[in-house]
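Appendix B. One record, verbatim.
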Amino acid sequence: MTNSISEVVDADVILVCGSNTTETHPVIGAQIRQAVNRGAKLIVADPREIPLAEEAEVFLPIRPGTNVALLNGMMNVIINEGLLDKEYVENRTEGFDELWEIVKEYTADKVGMICGIDPEDLKKAARLYATAERAPIFYAMGITQHTTGTAGVMSTANLALLCGKVGKYGCGVNPLRGQNNVQGACDMGCLPGDYTGYQKVANPEARAKFEAFWGVPLPSKPGLTITEILSGAETGDIRCLYIMGENPMVSDANLHHVEQALRRCELLIVQDIFLTETAELADVVLPAACYAEKEGTFTNTERRVQRIRAAVDAPGESREDWIILSEIMSRLGYENSFTSPREILEEIAQITPSYGGFSYDRLEKEQPQWPCPSPEHPGTPILHTAKFSRGERAIFKPSPYMPAAEQPDEHYPFILTTGRILYQYHTRTMTGKSDDINRIAGRSFVEIHPTDAAKKGIAQGDQVKVASRRGEVIVEARVTERVSEGVIFMPFHFAEAPANRLTNNVVDPISKIPEYKVCSAQVQAL
């Protein structure tokens, strides 16, 4: 997030795109509702009528996969009506002409046809956002999990820059992380091309710095993404795979492909807190400690670094992740002298400029947001107030709209989109163990519009078969107007009827993220 969570309550207009915030990020969702109760206008763009849509000034029920067209259309209206922040664009950006060259084609009428929305609603949303003093954008995986996910992210930044809403209080571009330490994991070098703090593997100076600090030679070539790793395992190019705290046998796209890849590995190691569907395939399972059983830090979605403390002892032979990794490093021939997570944070601060000001002693008193380069630095609640990562000016990165990789046809006439629900968490590794939660939301389902259900002879509660080119599942039908005609929705949490058996593992060419949010499907009554 470029800004802080607490700022949302002071917003004038809030744009939520591709995020079912109240169900998937309920704390932030509650604060958005507080802002609306205080008078903020809410714009919601989503293929489903999510709970926030009920409180929206403008609800845009877009077709899945049309985010780029929608955002280009908003920018078209803003530029044509002279609502852009001309001073900001002239003084703090570059590439406006290239932006206009693309978005000028996306008139409200054209975008209305592409997205399946009323052009007047598009215009109203654009005017509300552009003219508000404080207007944050919130998005999640409804923007990113497409073959055009990178273009979608860039388009949200283009819109904010065009209206001068970056580097200011109550504004910004704010991606919502899907789990509690996703931001922290990325910060610590869990991306294949980065060391800690996004210092690039391909940068010779960064590499030399880490080689000198650790006393070992390091590869100059970035590693593989998870989708590339699984493809490599399936072809036999990758023979050993070590999975920590991840359950790709439920969470990854095209599960038939995932299972083939994992079974092909000569050695599969899984480190987790429970025996997940993925761990059941492993040659070696290493029992790890959960969040309540270990010490350390998490970095949340607003870049805030927070101490965590063990509340209970880990059961049996379970150990903290850092202890397991330290022992493996030692047995592979690399000795380290860590005796506690405190010492690990001290090393992080030494070699990661954005974390230079963090220590256990400081985190006992306050939880600053990075970048925080020194112990005296107060932290950075708002990014890009004076300059951008690339220098004095941000650059517009426009993209034309490209349809999703799969489109409905006579055999698979529906668009299937997937997501999360309030009562279950990710692959149910933890929440699936709760009888009370499972009584509320213990099985999978598919949402289908009443008109489509009537054509298919489907009634509320019927068992139906949902199929794609990759597989099929049997689930309960929920007949609802929350989805549009021609669109169906499934939550991905349930291993017993996994939505990701159906989803398409074709990826964004830049981020390598699969297109979880759009694939063609069919529904049949049983």
